[in-house]
Amino acid sequence: MAHASNDLVVSLAANPLRQLSLEQLRERTSMKWRTYPADVLPLWVAEMDVPLADPVARALHAAVERGDTGYPAGTAYAEAFADFAALRWDWDGLAVARTAIVPDVMLGIVEMLKLVSGPRDPVVVNCPVYPPFYLFVRSDRRPVVEAPLSAEGRIDFTALAAAYRDAAARGGRPVHLLCSPHNPTGTVHTADELSEVARLARRYGVRVVVDEIHAPVVAEGTRFVPYLSVPGGENGLSLMSASKAWNLAGLKAAIAVAGPDAADDLARLPEEVSHGPSHLGVIAHTAALRDGGAWLDALLTGLDENRRRLAELLHEHLPSVRYRPGDATYLAWLDCRETGLGDDPAAAFLKHGRVALSTGADFGPGGEGFVRLNLATSPEILTEAVRRMASAM
Q: What does the pLDDT read at residue 12?
């Protein structure tokens, strides 16, 4: 494997996924690299095997040098996101006046749910879906109503309408917690699909809160559509962050964005929520959005290459595993139901192949027999991981 230079500064034109060796990565102390023993290749949690983007590193170093480690203030983060949205998505609807800084996307979601619904009101999710959607909602003692995705991993509007009816019949103020782009399938919802979500939500009196954390991470030729930009989405609430695209999970900061008809809801956000984000996190995310575009483009190219490589590797070594490359995220949703490994193939890949993947059943109904693989790693590690998975067979 290629080794990065000692200071891990990367050329903006270089593929960030090819910069770090396995030995360097094992020096990390984050969750990805400390949960399993050293002989396990961890391709589970959503951390990327990349060095910090140089513009972000420079901004953090400058803040530390001037002792700028106090409380967050101002709207620079929201302004940077608004400019990014206009440049990348041709969307000028991210109004800075209708934003708020929150600690991270999931904690922001919890706060948005409190703004638009009651403590026992139902929450609709499209399963299989990111496990914290279940954990955070249920820890708030709210019932979950499931609207399963289609076999192709897209929104099933018959199922969604049924879930909306069910949620509305329970009384209170139901909410649809939408994942866009979708984790784990990597599906990017189209403008027509999102407009239909908005139409049904209006019909059944359901508010939509959308997690758009993976929005910057899209495959070549794919267009991300913000939910708040579609007709009918004016009363929606969105959570956005630079966290996934620039690997900033340890630098806490996210943005809550309200549609025009939800501005009064967001204005009721308790003041103490703004104390949760990290000032250094805000600085890092702002720098990423402002100055990290070239780095992101190099990453996206590398992820496209890894999607193709993963498909080739599985075809060669694990032909019984079905894989449809997603149009977004750096997560691969692998159908292992024909491998004979049962409902929890991740357990077999860990025990016999020493590869850690996310267990599909954790994503709710429809996840049994699947695994989620994080392909944001070097081609060498990805190749070795598939080789090990094949040995588990």
A: 44
Neighbours of 369 (CB within 10 A): 18
Using the CB atoms, write b or e for 209-223: b if 16+ within 10 Å: bbbbbbbbbbbeeee
pLDDT at 3 over 60: no
368 three-class SS = coil
Other CB atoms within 10 A of residue 240 CB: 27
Question: CA 133 to CA 136: how far, in whole Å?
Answer: 6
Backbone angles phi, psi at 170, to 5 degrees: -80, -10
Query: Over the chain, what is the mean pLDDT?
Result: 95
- Return the half-sphere exposure (C-beta side, CA atoms, 13 A cut-off) of residue 339: 28
CA distance 215 to 139: 26
Length of the chain: 393
Cβ(310)–Cβ(316) under 8 Å?
A: no
| Residue 284, Cβ density class (10 Å: 0-12 exposed, 13-18 middle, ≥19 buried) | buried
Buried b (16+ CB within 10 A) or exposed e, 373-391: bbbbbbbebbbbbbbbbbe
Cα separation, 141 vs 148, whole angstroms: 21
Q: What is the pLDDT of residue 5?
A: 36
Q: Is the per-residue pLDDT at 258 higher than 80?
A: yes
Closest by Cα among 19, 2, 80 to 298:
19
Q: State mean pLDDT over 307-314.
A: 98
- pLDDT tens digits, residue range 179-205? 999 999 999 999 999 999 999 999 999
